[in-house]
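The instructor's notes for this session suggest beginning with a concrete chain rather than abstract definitions. Hand out the sequence below and ask the class to guess, before any prediction is shown, which regions might be ordered.
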Amino acid sequence: MPVLFNHDEVQGTTVGDGVVSQSLIDPERVGSDFVRLDRWTIDAGAAAEIRVADTDLAWFQLLEGAAILEGSEGEHAMTDANVAFLPPGFEGELSAPDGAVVLYGWVPDAERYDPGFGSTPLQFRLINWRAEPALSSEHDARTRIYLVTPTLFGTKAVKGEMIIYPPGTEASNHHHEGAEHFQYIVRGSGTVYLSEEPHRIRAGDTLYNYELERHNFLNDGEEELVFVEYFVPAECVTVWVNPELVCAWRPTGKNIKGDAPTREIEAHSSAATANPEGV
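After discussion, reveal the predicted structure:
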């Protein structure tokens, strides 16, 4: 059965002056070590230390505020539009002059999910998801923006995306084979159906799905429902309960701001391949 909870149910631990970490996904909570996820609250003027083990890979995105990342890959100013990919061995510090909230994930022993993990050095990457291509769903009003992908970051150990549901939008029932994954609700509220059983969801919720668990979302609220989701490993197959509603994602030719995107992604079906070319 999937695990569903809100961050306000998770006790925080002080990990530095002005930095509190909440462990959202860990083996104790979900009974699996595919992926780990923390939520950091960094007070104004404070800084969080980052150390990525040589066997791991990590990424993070700002949920609120702005920050400066300094370390082995130089200095980078970040906003809530950015996702940073951190290669094995990365060391640095994330400071927040006015405070920030951060979603920090990592894959322990990433070679389990990517046989080429140790053969080709991975590079630090910083993307602006507001500039990435926005894709539209063929059967409903959803929008997808890829955040962490093999094409962008050079590893098949993890894949991530942002999904936007306008009010009244519902996706079809489905499950995934070959990966475990989680969703973190960034904003909005709605209903998630887990093996056809409804559960209320709201901003700050984490939903951890094991392989083969059927699920689908409905935005029955009055504002957009937005969540990020990450799969470990990246290559997995989606199986739809109703084969006529297999989801196809079509390029809009624009980013979420309505401008030209930084790159192009061709139309693809969620069931056509384990990981579409270009993703």
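Then share the key points. Residues 176 and 238 are 4 Å apart (CA to CA). The radius of gyration is 18 Å.
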